[in-house]
């Protein structure tokens, strides 16, 4: 698999190591100093691009890949109010796109647990819901994309007849999310249900970036040669 890495920070370097260890070729590396090199000529022979950049640059990076027929895997968060635009472009171009707010296997298992727990807890209104997330100080978006996904999944499973939500919405701000930026922490997320008598909590902590990078590479392997729009649900 001939790959491009878009974003050559700590995640990009970890992705590079894993790609090479799994026998793939890294044919193009794009970072802030050579952003103009993300063009049709350089993308011509790329099978899959893996994009981990910033909220301000992700949209244009992904759009450039799709317009040039390059499959793209992205894990950048904080910009997804425009995700639907790129999904529509992907369909128009007959391209391939894979997006996830988090590529950790454990986090994606937490997503599933979170959805099921929210469904069950809907029958117990005495519990109050709260969330917390912690990341490194260099993370741009707050709350994290993972926290937003968790909150949206909870809201989607709340019984709207209960009056807690009066009309359909996926507004994550309806769940209180505490965000912390500490040191080099790669990511912690928790969802907590609290009553007067007890506390129920699900929590996930990432030990290092390798789990995220590996998930992104596996997603790229999955996407290679395909058309369409995919998520971690499809990968599972």
Word description of this protein:
The chain is of the alpha/beta class. The protein has 2 domains: 2-103 and 210-235, NAD(P)-binding Rossmann-like Domain (Rossmann fold); 105-205, Dihydrodipicolinate Reductase, domain 2 (2-Layer Sandwich), CATH 3.30.360. 36% of the residues lie in helices and 22% in strands. It contains 8 helices and 10 strands. It has helices at 10-21, 40-43, 58-67, 83-93, 105-121, 145-156, 210-223, 232-235; strands at residues 2-6, 25-30, 48-51, 71-74, 96-99, 128-135, 177-181, 188-194, 199-205, 228-230. The strands form 2 sheets. It has a 6-stranded parallel sheet, sandwiched between helices. It has a 4-stranded mixed sheet with strand order 7-6-8-9, with helices on one face. Strand 6 (128-135), helix 6 (145-156) and strand 7 form a beta-alpha-beta unit. Helix 1 crosses helix 7, helix 3 (58-67) packs parallel to helix 4 (83-93) and helix 5 runs parallel beside helix 6 (145-156). The longest helix is centred in the middle third of the chain and has 17 residues, at 105-121. The chain is elongated. 36% of the residues are buried.
Keywords, separated by commas or semicolons:
236 residues; alpha/beta; Rossmann fold; Dihydrodipicolinate Reductase, domain 2; 8 helices; 10 strands
């Amino acid at each position: 698999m001939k790959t491009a890495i878009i974003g050559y920070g700590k995640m990009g370097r970890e992705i590079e190591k894993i790609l090479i260890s799994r026998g793939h070729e890294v044919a193009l590396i794009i970072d802030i100093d050579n952003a103009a090199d993300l063009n049709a000529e350089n993308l011509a022979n790329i099978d899959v691009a893996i994009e981990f950049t910033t909220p301000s640059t992700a949209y244009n990076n992904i759009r450039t890949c799709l317009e040039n027929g390059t499959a793209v895997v992205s894990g950048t968060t904080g910009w997804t109010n425009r995700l639907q635009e790129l999904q529509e472009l992907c369909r128009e171009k007959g391209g391939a796109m894979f997006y996830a707010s988090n590529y950790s296997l454990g986090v994606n298992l937490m997503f599933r647990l979170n959805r099921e727990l929210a469904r069950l807890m809907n029958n117990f209104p005495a519990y109050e819901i709260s969330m917390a997330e912690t990341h490194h100080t260099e993370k741009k978006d707050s709350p994290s994309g993972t926290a937003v996904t968790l909150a949206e999944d909870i809201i989607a499973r709340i019984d709207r007849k209960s009056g807690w939500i009066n009309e359909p919405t996926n507004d994550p701000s309806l769940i209180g999310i505490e965000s912390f930026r500490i040191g080099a922490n790669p990511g912690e997320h928790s969802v907590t249900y609290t009553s007067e008598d007890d506390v129920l909590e699900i929590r996930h902590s990432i030990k290092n970036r390798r789990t995220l990078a590996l998930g992104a590479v596996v997603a790229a392997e999955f996407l290679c040669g395909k058309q369409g729009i995919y998520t971690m649900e499809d990968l599972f």
